[in-house]
Each structure stands twice: as C-alpha cells, then as structure tokens.
Amino acid sequence: MKIVPHTRNDRTVAEITSEEIYLQQIEDGIDLIGNVYYQGYDHVILHAGNITPAFFDLRTKLAGEILQKFTNYRICVAIVGNWENITSDSLHDFIRESNAGRQVYFTDTIDNALEKLTR
Predict the structure, then answer these.
(1) Tell me: the pLDDT tens digits for 78-114?
(2) What would be one Pfam family of this protein (predicted)?
(3) Residue 74 domain flag
(4) Which residues contact 61 (CB under 8 A, 6 or more apart)?
C-alpha cells in the first residue's frame, strides 16, 4: 500500500494505491484511518478494486461499518470506480445518498474525487 499525496485548493488528499486488496474487514479500515490520520490527512481517495467485493454487498454491512469509522474520525473519503453497471438497487441508492452528503463520495475518476474532496 502506498499513499500518493494530491494538493488542490490548499488541501492535501491522500490517494491510497496498491496492487492488492487492502480493505477486507473492519480492522483494515481502522488501520487505514490510523495511518492516514497519523500522517496528517483528513481526505482520502480509495480505489474500488482495492476493496473486497463484500464491501459492495450491503447485506454484509461492511460498507456501512467501515464508512462510519471514517465519518467518526472526520475523514472524508472518495471511492473511485465504475458505478455505471450496478445491478443492486440498494447499492445504487446507497451511492446516491452518499454522494448527496459531505463525507463519502463515489466517483468515476480521481479528478472527480479531488473535486469533491477539495471544494
């Protein structure tokens, strides 16, 4: 796992990159939060491909629990992925509701993630 810093509008955002899935359970989310928080970041970009598929199955409650941890620590997060082919109505609604808020965003590009996180 590597942190790539992006600066826009006087705000620095940590993009988490990896060749593997690094977010598989709640503890991984807590470790990630501690890592970025310790390094002074309060805005994070995650890639959907680095997150376990169980996260996107809302019946597991993994997404809700992990994203709640980010919210509790006031870390804004954008998850970058391809959201066009979602077949789950509940996931589609979850993404729409998240994007209407101010803490969690689902975007299709890093540039869109940076725009949402730094406005």
Answers:
(1) 999 999 988 999 999 999 999 999 999 999 999 999 9
(2) DUF4180
(3) yes
(4) none
Q: How far is CA 87 from CA 84, 91, 114, in A?
A: 9, 8, 26
- Give the confidence band of 71 by pLDDT, cuts at 50, 70, 90: very high
Is residue 114 classed as helix, strand or coil in its secondary structure?
helix
Residue by residue, what is the 3-state secondary structure of 23-58?
ECCHHHHHHHHHHHHHCCCCEEEEEHHHECHHHHCH
Count the domains in the chain: 1
Q: Is residue 37 part of a domain?
A: yes
Contacts of 86-92 with CB under 8 Å at 24 or more apart are: 88/56, 88/57, 88/58, 90/58, 91/56, 91/57, 91/58
Q: State if pTM tops 0.85.
A: yes
Q: Is residue 107 in a domain? A: no
